[in-house]
Amino acid sequence: MGAIEWAIDEDNYECTLSEETQKLAKDELREDKNTRDQALEQMRNWIKMNPRIENCRLDGRFLLKFLRCKKFNVPMAQEATERYLLLRQVYHQAFHSLDITEPNMEELLSLGYLFAAPGRDAKGRRVIIARPGVFDPHKYTNVDMCKIHAITYETLMEDEESQVRGFVHFADGAGVSFPHLTLFTPKEAVRIVKNGERTVPMRHKEVHGINSHPSLKFALDFGLSLISDKIKNRIKIYTSLEDAINNKLDVSMMPKEYGGTIPMKEMIDLWRKEIIELRPTLLNNDKMKVRLELYSEKAREGAVSALKQGFGCSSVGSNDSSMYGITGSFRKLEVD
């Protein structure tokens, strides 16, 4: 067997965070140079020794998004990394060839279905704007929907300031109707929400929604019932933009059409440039692979029960090598 060529090889990581963000990372995530260096070493050793991981990125920027999301709890970051690699592969159509230049992706972007506003809010966070009502459920598929989300989030998560600062979401439900709900079966919806929350290494700080149609209240309630209380407490739903503004929602980061200063088309054009710049990185991620045959069928299906029990021995059988899974070689992080 020749040496593995990793999707991106390990680098000598140099911290790029601003001083202010480094302080925030220390306070909120327990991150400092010592913790980071040790955690990166543990992550890399674990990936190399894990029989289920065939290929993965070993660069600091990639591994740190899992470590930061799990506040440098290394076993949890390892589990999240492996779950991410597995689900990327299982839902191959939705998470591979993340190419914004594909016609359907370009159309959804131009419509302003999902994009990030330029710049950062007062707390240094990127603001993500979603307008699900512009998605034509008779023209596009649920794979298209998953794919444009994957392109958006993967692009944003390559930025280290955002890995620490987190994100604000703003959604306009105008135009969302019953056909949108039939894009996913309830079972698929449960899996997407549960897997998304546990797998996508994003720090969701605030979620604001306007114009949710009363006839879809049952669907909204169902969606809210699936997410953790931690996230649920960060969600605010308003009847209209006016209602949101009256309740002190800061719209300065929004497109001009929603009370901000920059027209939506201009925001979308700036966001497109950002995505295209990272397009090679997103496409290169397709080299990452796990050995599917070493996972239980439930884990492969993304069943929530299988995810809860982790990828420990239960999903592989009782042979010793499986112990490398989530419990491989930990050293306690040194505490100064």
From TrEMBL:
Domain of life where this protein originates: Eukaryota
Organism, scientific name: Camponotus floridanus
One of the record's GO molecular function terms: phosphatidylinositol bisphosphate binding
GO cellular component, one term: membrane
Record protein name field: Alpha-tocopherol transfer protein-like
Residue intervals of the CRAL-TRIO domain: 102-266
Record-linked PANTHER family: ALPHA-TOCOPHEROL TRANSFER PROTEIN-RELATED (PTHR10174), CRAL-TRIO DOMAIN-CONTAINING PROTEIN DDB_G0278031 (PTHR10174:SF208)
